[in-house]
Structures are given as C-alpha cells and as structure tokens.
Write a structure and sequence with these properties.
The protein is of the alpha+beta class. 31% of the residues lie in helices and 28% in strands. It contains 3 helices and 6 strands.
Length: 160
C-alpha cells in the first residue's frame, strides 16, 4: 500500500486560497455522484467564491475556533473548521464542519485525523455518530443540498 505522510496545523491567512481549492475539488468530485442531476452547479464552489467565504470565516473565528489544514511537504490536502457554537448559548458545546479532503488523498485517514485533532483542541478549551456526535435536528438549507448539524458535549457526565 502506498502510504502518504501528512501533518496537521492551524491555517494561516496565506493558506486560504489553497483551503478554498481543496474544498472546491472535493465537492466537484463528490457531489455529482450523490445529488440528483441538475441540482449541483460547480460555480457555487468556485475557488474564488470560497476564498471570500474563508476570509470572512478566518476573521470571525478568533479564539472560539480555527481552520485546520492537513499538509504534505508541498501542499494542503485536507481542511476542517471547528469552534464553540456560541449561537446555541450552551457551554461546552462545539462544532466541527467543512471537513474536505483532496480526492487524490481520499481513504488515507486524513478526515479522521482532522476531526480527531479538532476534538482534542475543543476539549482543551472547556466522525459524527461513531465518535458519539448526535444529530440535533437542525437542518440548515444551503444552495447545494442541506447541512445537517451534529453536536457533541465536551464535558463528561455520569451515566445512570
């Protein structure tokens, strides 16, 4: 098996174009296979549009979250955003979203490594169901499909 090495770090402002390109490439590869014909428009995930979203997100995350990137020596190959969900106003609740991996790097454990690192960082501050995340019934309707939100308590509670 051809094992490829990568490391995970926090994104910097100068990474945002590459971050947008990874998401664009992943979505353009995956979405047409799972959405009905005619629903997906690749223009919605053009790198220049996504880069603007990431610039805004990067400015807003602050101390409550970050954009993580998985890199090999030459390029960014995976991304993940995470943070505290201040909209919920519930202490100890975090989110992980925008987990995308360059299709050339799929099935190498990058998405799992990104989510696991985000969970570590969230836990220091206060994939989904197999990691004990639970769907909280919120559905955010997006231009391309729906976004289901999963949450996970970051505190340990006694179980009866």
């Amino acid at each position: 098996m051809n094992k490829r090495l990568f490391n995970i770090r926090v994104a910097e402002q100068s990474d945002l174009r590459s971050v947008a390109e990874v998401q664009s490439k992943a979505v353009i590869t995956a979405y047409p296979a799972v959405l009905p014909p005619g629903v997906f428009d690749p223009e919605f995930v053009a790198p220049e549009k996504l880069e603007l979203e990431y610039e805004s997100l990067f400015a807003d995350l602050g101390s409550d979250g970050e954009i993580l990137v998985a890199c090999d020596d030459a390029q960014i190959v995976g991304i993940c955003t995470y943070g505290s969900d201040t909209e919920l106003a519930v202490p100890g609740v975090g989110y992980v979203q925008r987990v995308y991996v360059d299709p050339d790097w799929w099935n190498l454990g990058i998405a799992s490594a990104l989510v696991d690192r985000a969970l570590e960082l969230l836990s220091d501050r206060a994939f989904y169901e197999k990691r004990r995340w639970r769907y909280d019934r919120l559905v955010r309707v997006k231009v391309v499909g729906n976004e289901l939100r999963y949450t996970k308590s970051l505190t340990t509670r006694a179980v009866d």
